[in-house]
Write a structure and sequence with these properties.
Blueprint: H1 20-42, H2 45-48, H3 50-70, H4 75-106, H5 115-141, H6 147-185, H7 190-219, H8 224-227, H9 229-249, H10 252-255, E1 262-264, E2 271-273, H11 283-288, H12 293-298, H13 311-324, H14 328-333, H15 346-375
Helix pairs in contact: 1-3, 1-9, 3-4, 4-5, 4-6, 4-7, 5-6, 6-7, 7-9
């Protein structure tokens, strides 16, 4: 039986291949293990920690697909496999966002966008994609649902994939703009070039996979693409394994600094340690105003430009940042940093208290002066 032949009673339409998913389980397991080892070796937790997780999602999806291949009439296996496998590629895209963010932290004076805002903006929108996929994939794969319900699922997945394609395009333009600026400034090292080229290839692979899924869901579950398993193995399994293998061969953690505080001076040679390029605005504000238009208009953004400071000034800023650093418990209890003297809400309350204290002192002083005058 071929990979596109109809199998009576199969919720997959065809009889799923029993050997191919086992092969990819082994491949992704090896790849994920290497990712975990390299992440530990290079201590690149913030940048590449999700690589093993992305591989784990693919492994789980393929494992359920193996079981489904022996129980082709069981809809649960089909839905679970589809949702898990479709959740893996967006995580790989998420890793690309982290990689670009780390590059921008390293050369902040050429960043077209605040590095932290790259993370909050793209990750927030990527989370929307994951929610849409989770809600749409199981509806579309569930053949027991009505045509209208399955069509709704297809629309949700289509919306998610369209948003992903738009995100990847914007991401590519952002990376290319930085690449152009760094190349003109002559500060693009060999290692950074490698990371950027790998980033482009990885983003292209994820985009191709996204387009395949978009075409599949636009054409519907009665299309040739949906009913032929070979398309799935080429444009989902093989292409995503090439992506994870690429990130193994050219692991970004090996070529990027471990800390966001480390940056390259404008001479393109000297590596310095600064306070890190923090964004003190509430995270929800960074979502809706990633370019900090108000900061650019008011000139507030210029106060954060530490790369032109002397070593003594950098040391002072690092000390101030260390003094403001919160403990693990405080971070868990108040993850959005709302309270405390440096919290988004707490600091405003503190200012009001200070103002009331000052006003009270002024009032008392004036009363005292009035009594003295009366006595005279």
């Amino acid at each position: 039986m071929g990979m596109g032949d109809y199998s009576p009673g199969s919720v997959w339409y065809y009889a799923p291949n029993k050997i191919a998913p086992i092969i990819f389980i082994v491949l992704f397991f090896i790849s994920g293990s290497i990712h975990a080892f390299q992440t530990i070796q290079h201590k690149s937790w913030r940048t590449t920690l999700l690589l093993p997780w992305a591989a784990a999602l693919m492994i789980a999806g393929f494992a359920i697909r193996v079981v489904g291949a022996y129980h082709t009439d069981n809809l649960t296996y089909l839905i679970a496999s589809v949702v898990l496998i479709m959740s893996g590629p967006p995580v790989y895209a998420l890793i690309n966002y982290f990689i670009l963010s780390r590059i921008l932290y390293y050369i902040p004076y050429l960043a077209p966008l605040h590095p932290g805002r790259v993370a909050t903006t793209f990750i927030g929108l990527d989370a929307v994609c994951e929610i849409l996929i989770g809600q749409g994939a199981w509806r579309m794969a569930n053949s027991s649902m009505t045509t209208a319900q399955r069509q709704l699922g297809a629309h949700l997945v289509t919306a998610s994939l369209s948003l992903q394609c738009a995100l990847f395009s914007a991401f590519g333009l952002l990376a290319a703009q930085f690449h152009y600026r760094a190349n003109r400034a002559g500060v693009l090292t060999k290692e950074l070039r490698v990371v950027l080229y790998v980033l482009y290839v990885s983003a292209t692979i994820v985009t191709i996979r996204c387009i395949y899924r978009l075409v599949e869901y636009v054409m519907g579950w009665d299309s040739t693409i949906y009913k032929n398993e070979v398309f799935f193995w080429i444009f989902e399994a093989v292409i995503m394994f090439l992506n994870t293998a690429l990130l193994n061969a050219y692991h970004p953690g090996k070529r990027l600094p471990r800390s966001n505080s480390v940056f390259l001076a404008k001479d393109g040679v000297t590596v310095k340690k600064g306070p890190g390029w923090d964004d003190d605005r509430p995270w929800i504000v960074t979502m809706f105003d990633p370019f900090d238009v108000w900061g650019l208009i008011s000139g507030k953004d210029k106060k954060t430009q530490f790369w032109d400071m002397s070593d003594a000034e950098l040391e002072r800023l690092r000390a101030e940042k260390k003094a403001r650093k919160r403990g693990v418990v405080a971070g868990l209890l108040d993850p959005f940093r709302l309270w405390g003297k440096n919290g988004y809400i707490g600091k405003h309350i503190g200012r009001k208290k200070e103002q009331r204290t000052v006003d009270g002192d002024v009032t008392e002083t004036m009363k005292g002066a009035g009594k003295t005058t009366d006595a005279v």
